[in-house]
Write a structure and sequence with these properties.
The complex is a heterodimer.
Chain A: H1 4-15, E1 20-21, H2 24-29, H3 40-44, E2 51-53, H4 58-71, E3 75-78, E4 95-98, E5 114-118, H5 123-132, E6 135-136, H6 149-155, H7 162-165, E7 172-178, E8 184-186, H8 202-205, E9 214-221, E10 223-224, E11 228-236, H9 239-251, E12 258-262, H10 264-274, E13 282-290, H11 292-308, E14 312-313, H12 316-324, E15 339-341, E16 344-347, H13 351-365, E17 369-377, E18 380-388, H14 401-412, E19 416-417, H15 427-432, H16 434-446, E20 461-466, E21 470-473, H17 476-490
Parallel strand pairs in A: 2-4, 3-4
Antiparallel strand pairs in A: 1-2, 5-9, 6-10, 7-8, 7-9, 11-13, 11-14, 12-13, 12-17, 15-18, 16-18, 16-19, 17-18, 20-21
Helix pairs in contact in A: 1-4, 9-11, 13-14, 14-17
Chain B: H1 3-15, H2 17-33, H3 41-48, E1 53-56, H4 60-70, H5 90-106, E2 110-113, E3 130-133, E4 140-143, E5 148-152, H6 157-166, E6 169-170, E7 174-175, H7 185-188, E8 193-195, E9 198-199, E10 204-210, E11 216-220, H8 233-244, E12 246-253, E13 255-256, E14 260-268, H9 271-283, E15 290-295, H10 296-302, E16 310-318, H11 320-333, E17 339-342, H12 351-362, E18 365-366, E19 369-373, H13 377-390, E20 395-401, E21 406-413, H14 419-433, E22 440-443, H15 445-450, H16 454-470, H17 484-489
Parallel strand pairs in B: 1-3, 2-3
Antiparallel strand pairs in B: 4-5, 5-12, 6-13, 7-8, 8-9, 10-11, 10-12, 14-16, 14-17, 15-16, 15-20, 18-21, 19-21, 19-22, 20-21
Helix pairs in contact in B: 9-13, 13-14
The chains are: A alpha+beta, B alpha+beta.
């Protein structure tokens, strides 16, 4: 492995001094994502990269990868840092590529109904570019103002708008990639959706968390601008009643752009934070997009469904507030100086069981939890429970057992956790069984050096190498055992009280 | 003799991209037409080979048995029992490894025969080995709670459609060309299933498969989509299943069936008027179930009611009030039509009639699919007609458009299904698409051969790597090698 001084000089030669960061502060900032990171993680993984580099072109990314091969150092891609499980942080140091200076967005092409954006452009930027030209990009992540094109596509691509328009995957025509050997490749056509023809490989990149290739640009679908976007909101005593309306909605032919439920605990946390919201009530937030006449008919039907479930319709201004809050869902992290989010896709029919399960886990681990649900398709919901936690608390790691228990609960209900990243890669063997091994083989076949975002997604590496055997691999069962043990220890501690005294009912 | 001068010149000429293409085209033509006189003997041998046996499997367990047998588990027994620590001399080791190598290279393979080919079968047949017929794997299980259906690959699409309908739901995809396909024909053959919101791949949650090692695996999750769970083997299985594993069933996402379904056909005098109407419908923001396009020839194959010469057929649903506003809006978007007809969709015709219609459609000669952006529809339709009339054959087309503004168009010709004719018409369509700057693309086996796109070549290499990983025993549709026969007789 090349010395850090030599590597720094070479990187500066490639990009110039202003786009290569070696200072401690820049490196520390890039050592975590949205997730709260327990301090012991810094012992187990080398989360702080050796360098942070900011390329502006795919050619530069290619040269960085070629240099990393020469220097035998890992390369880690990073977008907006809005992931939950460490997909965009280093596990063994190396060169961290921050894509946020690759943020050019083309004008939408009216003929092909597409828009091209570089990997570091945020989704809001792309949606705005489409909107400015009279087009509509309706599928965006919940962190659209800061989540980047490359980051979300690599992370699974499910979020706002998925119910009607599908995930980012269904709307990705092609992606430009830099492969582990530094070569460049395009996964499909930027004018036509090749589907499964001409060896279209776009879907293979989707969800691979930057471990197979680095995405530098994506060509995406845009749609004609709808006549109207109509936000609606309804409140219910609990998530259970809101779920009844969702079940009726699924049986109907109403297809909103977005359907989300914020459970009563989340709304209560919001009240605890700054007094906003109706208190301990669940909120069903929807947005209808389409012709006005159809929206009006659909709204009437939804009103009737909600009335039958004893819900209350919120005034239009409030509905608009809830709709706009879809991109800013976690202000409540200020209650505890942090929060940890679980994420899973589960069959919608099992939402009740899942909510009960989450409450059971909450009770056992004595946490302050709440849950967001959004519909992905007729049968599937994206569920995001979270718990408040102070990441500086020495006992913080004990709460992480929640993530293990939640993932197991989702799998028991025939769903699956979403995302593996660095911290949750231990779920992959349980999710995919025999195929998990094949995934490791595929990673090794395409990235023989194991230099591209290594030790993640399909396997878990600790920071050290073992003599002869190479990277120290963390057996999934051992990680599971450790998290279970932490959960047992957590039971001995007093319950969390982040909202005590700030509101009633906690 | 100036041999070097001649050689150098010839090498340079053949290295010219244009000449390279000519040579490549000649080889592709020769292979496709099996021109025995013009091809080397080894090539003819490969093209003349065929699977030794076709097995109609009744259970997935039978597929496992066949894969394990062909995968060489029994073959290794031929070398005798190998106990741990058994001494093997260096010479024995060499022979043992060589024998394994030969077995590896000459191993037989397994392929799956699709129910119906839209165009033409594989150009290079499986070299010996076993061909599987999955038509007895034909169950369709519906889960109304999770809005999913588990359809085995041998299930006729029409049966799946009817079964889902009987449960009050809607299968999200339908065949663009109304042939009597099996569900698995999209994996093993060239069937194109589409819906207003996307293609088959967008509607698949999971693919149940028998891996090359004979292990039953589920790629993806039967009840929820496979997003964000590391590498998407579900996609690989659906898209390239024929090369990587034996896919036995697909888990499909369903949608609820609207209370009222209307199917309205608008006739237009020319392709230009049809194109304008398609653009208007696409821009209307109305949610449809399908948007199909025909010319009068295609229409007459599936409907008795006269229409034409160009027809736009929209299927949509909703409650009464929604259906009413949609009808009005679509009537406005289709202004300029010469006739309006409300007819039941051919998809909903009785099974016997559907089969009969499919048989009629099956007599037509299809050579591939043209993918295009909707704005080029009129030009492409006219160009296809001109191509056909220049060759003295009648043509027609089935097409469907998606909400994304992409059209999938299958031209057909009233001509005998002769390889030379197929090649000629395919080549004409291939040449036709070149003038549209990448917004029109011919999709067919020959088109894949003709493509000189460097990016496609790179992707093929990645796909080959995936094949090596997922099909390690190399039994599922193994490559046909020209070297095969030589290995046995090569001097050791």
């Amino acid at each position: 492995m090349a010395s850090l001084g030599y590597s720094h000089r070479r990187l500066v030669n490639l990009l110039g001094p202003e786009r290569v960061a070696r200072g401690e502060m820049e490196r520390l900032i890039h050592s975590h994502d949205f997730a709260a990171v327990p301090k012991p993680a810094y012992l187990n993984f080398k989360l702080v990269p050796d360098f942070v580099v900011l390329p502006r072109t795919a050619e530069e990314v290619s040269r960085i990868v070629q240099f990393a091969i020469e220097a035998d150092t890992p390369v880690v891609p990073r977008g907006g840092g809005t992931g939950f499980y460490g997909g965009g942080v280093a596990s063994r140091g190396g060169i961290l590529i921050d894509f946020r200076q690759m943020r050019r967005v083309s004008k939408p092409d009216a003929g092909t109904r597409t828009i091209s954006a570089e990997a570091g452009a945020t989704w809001k930027q792309v949606a705005d570019a489409a909107k400015n030209d009279g087009w509509y990009l309706p599928y965006v992540p919940n962190f659209a103002p800061s989540s980047t094109v490359g980051g979300w596509i690599n992370g699974g691509g499910v979020g706002v708008g998925s119910y009607k328009y599908g995930s980012a995957r269904e709307n990705l025509l092609s992606a430009d990639l830099v492969m582990p050997d530094g070569s460049q490749m395009r996964t499909g056509s930027d004018k036509l959706d090749l589907g499964t023809q001409f060896a279209n490989l776009g879907p293979l990149v989707h969800g691979s968390e930057g471990t197979l290739a680095l995405m530098t640009r994506a060509t995406l679908r845009v749609y004609p601008k709808p006549e109207e976007i109509r936000p609606l909101a309804y409140s219910f005593p609990t998530l259970r009643e809101a779920r009844e309306v969702v079940n009726r909605l699924l049986d109907s032919e109403v297809v909103p752009n977005h359907v989300a439920i914020l459970d009563e605990h989340h709304v209560l946390f919001l009240q605890a934070l700054d007094g906003r919201g109706p208190g301990k009530r669940a909120i069903l937030s929807l947005a209808l997009d389409g012709p006005k006449d159809e929206n009006a008919e659909d709204e009437k039907l939804l009103d009737a469904m909600v009335a039958a479930a004893k819900g209350t319709k919120s005034p239009p201004a409030e509905a608009k507030d809830w709709w706009e809050a879809r991109f800013y869902q976690y202000p409540v992290r200020r209650l505890a100086n942090g929060l940890v989010i679980g994420e899973a896709l589960v069959p919608t029919y099992a939402l009740g069981e899942l909510a009960d399960g989450v409450r059971r886990i909450t009770k056992k681990l004595k946490l302050n939890t709440a849950m967001h649900v959004s519909l992905v398709d007729r049968g599937t919901s994206l569920v995001r429970p979270y718990f408040l936690a102070d990441e500086n608390d020495i006992m913080f790691p004990m709460r992480l057992s929640f993530l293990l228990r939640f993932a197991d609960l989702a799998l028991d209900l025939k769903g699956h956790p979403l995302g593996a990243g660095l911290y949750l890669a231990f779920n992959v063997p349980k999710m995919h069984g025999f195929n998990a091994r094949k995934m490791r083989y595929l990673k090794r076949a395409l990235d023989a050096r194991q230099g591209l975002n290594p030790g993640k997604t399909v396997e878990m590496w600790a920071r050290l190498d073992l003599p002869i055997l190479g990277p120290a691999k963390m057996p999934p069962e051992l990680v599971r055992f450790g998290l279970k043990a932490l959960g047992l220890a957590r039971k001995l501690l007093p319950p969390d009280t982040y909202t005590r005294g700030k509101t009633e009912g906690t | 003799m100036a041999l070097l001068r001649d050689m150098r010149f010839l090498r340079d000429v053949t290295a010219l991209p244009a000449m390279g293409d000519v040579l490549r085209d000649q080889v592709i033509r020769g292979v496709f037409l099996r021109e025995e006189r013009g091809l080397p003997r080894d090539v003819v041998r490969v093209l003349s080979n065929a699977p030794r046996v076709t097995v109609k499997v009744d259970t997935e367990a039978e597929i496992r048995k066949i894969l394990r047998m062909i995968g060489g588990e029994e073959g290794t027994q031929a070398f005798g029992p190998l106990a741990p620590g058994m001494p093997i001399s260096a010479e024995d080791t060499h022979h043992f490894r060589r024998a394994l190598e030969i077995q590896w290279e000459t191993r037989l393979g397994v392929t799956v025969r699709p129910g119906v080919w839209t165009t033409y079968p594989h150009i290079v047949p499986l070299q010996g080995g076993v061909q599987l017929d999955l038509s007895n794997l034909a169950t369709v299980e519906i889960d109304g709670v999770t809005f999913t259906a588990q359809a085995q690959c041998g299930a006729p699409w029409k049966a799946a459609w009817e079964r889902v309908k009987s449960k009050g739901m809607l299968l999200p995809v339908y065949p663009v060309v109304p042939l009597d396909y099996q569900v698995g024909d999209a994996v093993y053959g060239d069937a194109r299933f589409l819906s207003w919101r996307g293609d088959l791949d967008d509607a698949v949650n999971a693919a149940r498969a028998m891996s090359a090692e004979g292990i039953q695996v589920t790629h993806g999750f039967t009840r929820v989509p496979n997003y964000g769970t590391a590498y998407d083997f579900r996609y690989l299985a659906t898209a390239f299943g024929a090369d990587l594993a034996v896919v036995t069933a697909l888990s499909l996402r369903l949608r609820s069936r609207p209370a009222v379904i209307k199917n309205v056909a608008y006739s237009f005098a020319d392709a230009a008027a049809l194109g304008v109407a398609v653009e208007k419908v696409l821009g209307s923001g109305r949610e449809l179930l399908w948007l199909n396009l025909y010319d009068d020839r295609a229409w007459s194959l599936i409907h008795k009611e006269p229409a034409g010469p160009f027809i736009l057929e929209v299927g949509f649903g909703g409650r009464e009030p929604i259906a009413a506003v949609r009808t009005k809006a679509l009537d406005t978007a289709a202004a300029g039509n010469t006739a309006r007809l409300e007819v039941p969709s051919h998809l909903d015709s009785p099974a016997a009639q559907f089969s009969k219609t499919a048989a009629g459609v099956g007599k037509m000669l299809f050579v591939g699919e043209l993918l295009l952006t909707s704005r080029h529809l009129p030009k492409v339709v006219e160009a296809v007609r001109a191509t056909a009339s220049a060759r003295g054959v009648r043509s027609g087309f089935f097409a469907a458009a998606t909400v994304q503004g992409q059209v999938s168009l299958f031209p057909f010709f009233e001509a005998p299904k002769e390889p030379a004719r197929i090649h000629d018409l395919s080549r004409a369509l291939w040449d036709l698409q070149k003038g549209f700057g990448g917004e029109v693309l011919l999709v067919s086996r020959l088109a894949h051969f003709w493509s000189t796109d460097k990016e496609f070549e790179k992707r093929l290499k990645i796909l080959q790597t995936a094949d090596d990983v997922l099909d390690q025993p190399n039994v599922v549709d193994p490559a046909a090698s020209l070297e095969k026969a030589k290995i046995f007789f090569a001097p050791q």
